[in-house]
Write a structure and sequence with these properties.
The complex is a heterodimer. Helices cover about 0% and strands about 55% of the residues of chain A. Chain A is mostly beta strands. Chain A is globular. By secondary structure, chain B is mainly β. In chain B, about 0% of the residues lie in helices and about 55% in strands. The termini of chain B are far apart. In chain B, about 35% of the residues are buried. Classes of the chains: A mainly beta, B mainly beta. At the A-B interface, strand 5, strand 9 and strand 10 of A face strand 4 and strand 5 of B.
């Protein structure tokens, strides 16, 4: 079992729709959870982090964490073509600073 | 402030040659990470340092790979001898660790092609 699992996609949504990206992790000791966005040919950049169970909203983005289910998700509201990228879920291993990434989900937003 | 700086951006070499990738982290960051990204395996953590000390190198594929951090502003990842399966994009990243929120700041990557 991989430490951080994501559906590789591609996930295709029309412009203006909600995109839902999901991630599961195996280490119950993980404390910090991150979503990074990576455009083709570029390096990953942080979108959001979340530490506590529940929802965290930042503009059009909402991160959701359920530690009991070992599940993290990212919702993108009012999706735009510029949101088309690969979204990487990342988890700090055993509550430390060793950050493990999932394989990423490719998102396409159709104009 | 400049971000994480990596060099070279692109490297094409022949199998068996030595490859050295370089990284300058953001000033003041305590943690430095080396990742490798391929289509098949995604973004894999190779090794990370805290205050110039290697903390976890369990992701280093084999003895052909070595990494050093002689001071707070410089790190190298060396592959000797290189093999075609080492072809990938190698990213260096740095972070503030406990003084921050855990965000990793990535360099632009070094794209390695081994023929």
């Amino acid at each position: 079992q991989k430490e951080v699992e994501q559906n590789s996609g591609p996930l295709s949504v029309p412009e203006g729709a909600i995109a839902s990206l999901n991630c599961t992790y195996s280490d119950r000791g993980s404390q910090s959870f991150f979503w990074y966005r990576q455009y083709s040919g570029k390096s990953p950049e942080l979108i959001m982090f979340i530490y506590s169970n529940g929802d965290k909203e930042d503009g059009r983005f909402t991160a959701q964490l359920n530690k009991a289910s070992q599940y993290v998700s990212l919702l993108i509201r009012d999706s735009q073509p510029s949101d088309s990228a690969t979204y990487l879920c990342a988890v700090d291993h055993t509550g430390g600073f060793k950050t493990i990434f999932g394989a990423g989900t490719r998102l396409f937003v159709k104009a | 402030d400049a971000g994480v700086i990596q060099s070279p951006r692109h490297e094409v070499t022949e199998m068996g040659q030595e490859v050295t990738l370089r990284c300058k982290p953001i000033s003041g960051h305590d943690y430095l990470f080396w990742y490798r990204q391929t289509m098949m395996r995604g973004l894999e953590l190779l090794i990370y340092f805290n205050n110039n000390v290697p903390i976890d190198d369990s992701g280093m594929p084999e003895d052909r790979f070595s990494a050093k951090m002689p001071n707070a502003s410089f790190s190298t990842l060396k592959i000797q001898p290189s093999e075609p399966r080492d072809s990938a994009v190698y990213f260096c990243a740095s972070s503030l660790g406990s003084r921050g929120d855990g965000e990793l700041f990535f360099g632009e990557g070094s794209r390695l092609t081994v023929l």
